[in-house]
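sry for the spam today, last one i promise. C-alpha coordinates for design, 109 residues
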Protein backbone atom coordinates (compact mmCIF):
# COMPACT_ATOMS: atom_id res chain seq x y z
CA UNK A 1 0.00 0.00 0.00
CA UNK A 2 1.45 3.37 -0.98
CA UNK A 3 -0.49 5.50 1.46
CA UNK A 4 -0.39 4.80 5.19
CA UNK A 5 -2.51 6.88 7.53
CA UNK A 6 -2.58 6.36 11.26
CA UNK A 7 -4.13 8.52 13.95
CA UNK A 8 -2.48 8.19 17.35
CA UNK A 9 -4.23 8.39 20.69
CA UNK A 10 -2.79 11.86 21.31
CA UNK A 11 -4.54 13.20 18.18
CA UNK A 12 -1.36 13.58 16.12
CA UNK A 13 -1.46 12.13 12.65
CA UNK A 14 0.93 10.19 10.52
CA UNK A 15 0.77 9.96 6.75
CA UNK A 16 3.26 8.37 4.40
CA UNK A 17 2.98 8.44 0.64
CA UNK A 18 5.62 6.16 -0.81
CA UNK A 19 4.09 6.65 -4.27
CA UNK A 20 5.23 10.29 -4.30
CA UNK A 21 7.88 10.81 -6.93
CA UNK A 22 10.00 12.64 -4.33
CA UNK A 23 9.71 10.06 -1.54
CA UNK A 24 11.72 10.20 0.62
CA UNK A 25 12.25 13.90 0.00
CA UNK A 26 14.75 14.33 2.86
CA UNK A 27 17.62 12.06 3.87
CA UNK A 28 18.18 10.86 7.42
CA UNK A 29 14.75 9.48 8.34
CA UNK A 30 13.95 5.77 8.42
CA UNK A 31 11.45 5.22 5.59
CA UNK A 32 9.14 3.23 7.89
CA UNK A 33 8.64 6.31 10.09
CA UNK A 34 8.84 8.99 7.40
CA UNK A 35 5.87 11.31 7.93
CA UNK A 36 4.65 13.22 4.86
CA UNK A 37 1.96 15.12 6.77
CA UNK A 38 3.90 18.39 6.71
CA UNK A 39 5.10 18.19 3.12
CA UNK A 40 4.84 21.98 3.07
CA UNK A 41 6.26 23.12 6.38
CA UNK A 42 3.89 25.31 8.39
CA UNK A 43 6.93 26.70 10.24
CA UNK A 44 8.60 28.12 7.12
CA UNK A 45 7.17 31.58 7.76
CA UNK A 46 8.94 31.74 11.12
CA UNK A 47 12.19 32.36 9.29
CA UNK A 48 15.17 31.77 11.62
CA UNK A 49 12.85 30.90 14.53
CA UNK A 50 11.40 27.67 13.07
CA UNK A 51 13.80 25.43 15.00
CA UNK A 52 14.74 23.40 11.95
CA UNK A 53 17.95 22.73 10.07
CA UNK A 54 17.94 25.35 7.30
CA UNK A 55 20.35 27.48 5.36
CA UNK A 56 19.89 30.52 3.16
CA UNK A 57 20.82 30.56 -0.49
CA UNK A 58 22.99 33.35 -1.88
CA UNK A 59 19.76 35.06 -2.94
CA UNK A 60 18.40 34.91 0.59
CA UNK A 61 15.90 32.10 0.07
CA UNK A 62 15.45 29.78 3.03
CA UNK A 63 16.56 26.29 1.99
CA UNK A 64 15.13 23.38 4.02
CA UNK A 65 16.68 20.55 2.03
CA UNK A 66 18.57 19.15 5.03
CA UNK A 67 15.75 19.51 7.56
CA UNK A 68 13.90 16.45 8.87
CA UNK A 69 12.33 18.11 11.93
CA UNK A 70 8.70 17.38 11.02
CA UNK A 71 9.23 14.07 9.23
CA UNK A 72 10.05 11.76 12.15
CA UNK A 73 6.98 9.67 12.99
CA UNK A 74 4.25 11.61 14.75
CA UNK A 75 6.59 14.16 16.36
CA UNK A 76 5.85 16.77 13.72
CA UNK A 77 2.35 17.63 14.93
CA UNK A 78 3.60 18.16 18.48
CA UNK A 79 6.45 20.38 17.27
CA UNK A 80 4.12 22.52 15.16
CA UNK A 81 1.73 22.94 18.08
CA UNK A 82 4.62 23.96 20.34
CA UNK A 83 5.41 26.80 17.92
CA UNK A 84 1.83 27.74 17.09
CA UNK A 85 2.01 30.66 19.51
CA UNK A 86 4.87 32.13 17.45
CA UNK A 87 2.88 31.73 14.23
CA UNK A 88 -0.13 33.35 15.84
CA UNK A 89 1.96 36.23 17.17
CA UNK A 90 3.53 36.79 13.75
CA UNK A 91 0.12 36.90 12.09
CA UNK A 92 -1.27 39.17 14.79
CA UNK A 93 1.57 41.65 14.27
CA UNK A 94 0.91 41.98 10.55
CA UNK A 95 3.45 39.49 9.23
CA UNK A 96 1.22 38.69 6.28
CA UNK A 97 0.98 42.34 5.27
CA UNK A 98 4.77 42.70 5.37
CA UNK A 99 5.17 39.62 3.19
CA UNK A 100 2.59 40.94 0.73
CA UNK A 101 4.65 44.12 0.44
CA UNK A 102 7.43 42.03 -1.15
CA UNK A 103 5.13 41.42 -4.11
CA UNK A 104 6.85 39.98 -7.12
CA UNK A 105 10.17 41.51 -6.11
CA UNK A 106 10.82 38.88 -3.47
CA UNK A 107 13.88 36.65 -3.87
CA UNK A 108 13.74 33.72 -6.23
CA UNK A 109 15.70 30.53 -5.77
S1 LIG B 1 14.11 24.29 8.42
FE1 LIG B 1 12.68 22.60 8.83
S2 LIG B 1 11.31 23.39 10.44
FE2 LIG B 1 12.35 25.15 9.53
S3 LIG B 1 10.96 25.88 7.93
FE3 LIG B 1 12.42 24.48 6.95
S4 LIG B 1 11.41 22.47 6.98
FE4 LIG B 1 10.33 23.80 8.46
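last one done:
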Amino acid sequence: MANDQVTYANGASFFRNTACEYFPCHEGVDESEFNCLFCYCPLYALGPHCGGNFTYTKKGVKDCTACTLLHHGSDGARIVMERFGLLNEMARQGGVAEAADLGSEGPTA
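The longest strand covers residues 3-7. ok im logging off now
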